[in-house]
Specification:
- The structure holds two protein chains of two kinds.
- The model of chain A has no long low-confidence stretch (mean pLDDT 92).
- Helices cover 84% and strands 0% of the residues of chain A.
- Chain A has one domain.
- By secondary structure, chain B is mainly alpha-helical.
- Chain B has a single domain, classed as Rhodopsin 7-helix transmembrane proteins (Rhopdopsin 7-helix transmembrane proteins).
- Chain B has eleven helices and no strands.
- Chain B is globular.
- The mean pLDDT of chain B is 87.
- Classes of the chains: A mainly alpha, B mainly alpha.
- Chains A and B meet through helix 1 and helix 10 of A and helix 6, helix 8 and helix 10 of B.
Chain lengths: 298, 240
């Protein structure tokens, strides 16, 4: 078990205490606290993509931003034409990205690695959907622009992918252990974490389960990897230095996101806040996942 | 006594596990006590402690078995008496295993205090419950602080660091295995706590404390006998 799994476990105990005390937490309260944690920890982990990229590759700033923003624009266009395909693409990219951030240290052949990343990340996302299907269907049905997304929450289809992705992920882990790509301690830790994630998604509402996973096991973990990267290059690099790099770009991202969501809230943009949040997060995820792939592999 | 034994219901797994738990713990004690003769002098105390853990549990399971057969109720008080004695002894094992790597008496006391804190608070929360959620939550939180401290010490804190410093691979691996016991094996207890009447797992999912007795019995056997076997394994490897 690594320190992030430990923090995840503490988070679970804390949430169990909360639910023990209050039995249920109002959806609005869930949303407020989830948004807070995602903003504070989720945005910073992706806010320094450009800093990481320029440490790894030489490219003109213009070209980098042209490609980065170009990908965002293309994805926005896809959202305009088809929200269902966009959501599916977002889930596929996120699955790969989650898997890569968790297992980028394994030395495997590229093809096998990428396949494993995809299946492990998919197992996480599909499980989250599977255990909270009714809740997601209700949430999506609430707003006009998210209603069309309920077609994804088809129980037989979700159940099928739930079993396939989880089974394949576990098989991959077992094979890696058998081939000594994973030591016993790491193998046991990953299986334990896998079970813990399932338990969390089963016990807690969608937003809470997702936030706990995303903030602790993904964002904090990635920020730790980013910090170590800087530290390896400059041994005197401290956490304060890291926060100084993160802060300005994170603040800009938070303010920008806040302005867009505020525009929806005030009616300037005719899209619901949940839908807009989904679009914003998804369009940023595409270039972010590409940058992180370069970060991990070069 | 014979009539009582013959009256064990065939479809009562809880009664079954009380009986098997009691015998398994007793057998493990006998094994650990006898095997003290097979290990080096420095490991005899560790095996003695392992034998005491399972021996104390065997006696308590003997009484718990009778209490359950007579009343059908959870033997809460007896369980906590058992845990209050055996869990600190398990913490003593962590100290003994890392002593060669420099563990100080202060580590021993910190672990014992943390385990006693965890159990006393848990007992107050469970046995003196007035049915109100506030009482069980309050004491559950207090108890969990002790558990998290032990967990942290075993995985990242003093015990983990000392094991890492140790020259012995058997000690390194053994302490890590024991840390897994604390993480996975001991987690049944807070889950059981939340299955009490009014607990969230009880109200949200209908999990009842009567269902948990079975898992407590199985977990206790695995946690205590398994714990002892890990210590035994280290002792045997280090005695070769």
């Amino acid at each position: 078990m690594n320190v992030f799994s430990f923090i995840y476990l503490i988070g679970i105990y804390f949430l169990l205490t909360l639910f023990n005390a209050f039995n249920a937490i109002d959806f609005d309260i869930q949303l407020i606290y989830a948004s807070f944690f995602i903003l504070v920890f989720g945005i910073p982990h992706g806010a320094i993509d450009h800093v990481l990229f320029f440490r790894k590759r030489k490219l003109s700033q213009f070209k980098f931003y042209a490609v980065y923003l170009g990908l965002i624009a293309l994805f926005l266009l896809l959202w305009y034409f088809s929200s269902v395909y966009s959501l599916l693409l977002f889930l596929i990219i996120s699955a790969f990205h989650f898997g890569e951030s968790q297992f980028n240290d394994l030395s495997l052949k590229k093809g096998i690695k990428y396949l494993f990343y995809f299946f492990w990340g998919s197992a996480i996302l599909v499980s989250l959907i599977f255990y909270n299907l009714d809740e997601l269907t209700d949430l999506s049905s609430y707003f006009k622009d998210t209603m069309g997304l309920t077609v994804i929450y088809d129980l037989p289809v979700v159940r099928f992918f739930f079993y396939v992705t989880n089974l394949v992920s576990l098989t991959f882990l077992a094979i890696f252990f058998y081939l000594k790509k994973l030591k016993i301690d790491r193998f046991c830790s990953e299986i334990f974490l896998f079970i813990l994630i399932h338990i969390t998604f089963f016990l807690f509402p969608f937003i809470i389960g997702f936030t706990l996973y995303f903030v602790v096991l993904h964002s904090l973990h990635v920020m730790y990897q980013e910090f170590n990267f800087f530290k390896c290059a400059e041994p005197k690099f401290t956490m304060i230095d890291f926060l100084k790099i993160l802060l300005p770009y994170s603040l800009v991202s938070i303010v920008f996101s806040g302005l867009i969501l505020g525009s929806s809230y005030l009616g300037f943009i005719d899209l619901s806040m949940p839908f807009l949040s989904l679009v914003i997060i998804s369009v940023i995820t595409l270039p972010h996942a590409i940058v992180m792939n370069i970060f991990y592999n070069e | 006594m014979l009539l009582n034994i013959l009256a064990i219901p065939k479809d009562d797994p809880v009664a079954f596990t009380f009986f098997t738990g009691y015998m398994a713990m007793l057998a493990a004690s006998v094994f650990f006590f006898f095997e003290r003769g097979s290990v080096d002098k420095k490991w005899k105390l560790s095996l003695l402690i392992s034998g005491l853990i399972t021996g104390i549990a065997a006696v308590h399971y003997f009484y718990m078995r009778d209490y359950y057969m007579a009343t059908g109720d959870n033997p809460t008080a007896l369980r906590y008496i058992d845990w209050t004695l055996t869990v600190p002894l398990m913490c003593v094992e962590f100290y003994l295993l890392t002593k060669a790597a420099g563990a100080k008496k202060s580590l021993l006391w910190k672990l014992i205090i943390a385990s006693a804190w965890m159990l006393v608070a848990g007992y107050i929360g469970e046995a003196f419950s007035d049915g109100s959620t506030g009482h069980s939550v309050q004491w559950g939180v207090i108890s969990t602080i002790g558990y998290i401290y032990i967990l942290y010490t075993a995985w990242f804190g003093e015990v983990a660091q000392l094991a890492e410093k140790s020259d012995s691979l058997a000690v390194k691996n053994g302490v890590r295995t024991l840390a897994w016991f604390v993480l996975v094996g001991w987690s049944i207890y807070p889950i059981g706590y939340m299955c009490m009447d009014g607990g969230w797992l009880n109200t949200a999912f209908g999990w009842e404390s009567s269902n948990v007795d079975l898992w407590y019995n199985i977990a206790d056997a695995i946690n205590k006998i398994g714990f002892g076997l890990v210590v035994y394994s280290i002792a045997i490897k280090e005695s070769k």
